[in-house]
Amino acid sequence: MLLLELTMAEKNRPLINELLMQMGKHPEIETWRQKGKHPTTNFYYTSR
Question: Phi and psi (nearest 5°) for 10?
Fold first, then answer.
């Protein structure tokens, strides 16, 4: 079981890294930081 969890973590690492990088570029990131939370609904952002 532990081996499977480590494999899944490694498999998903690029996706998680990309999501974190994209969130950091979102125009509302400073608002989220000030509030101490991010939205729980889906959001869409494309870089310009």
Answer: -65, -40
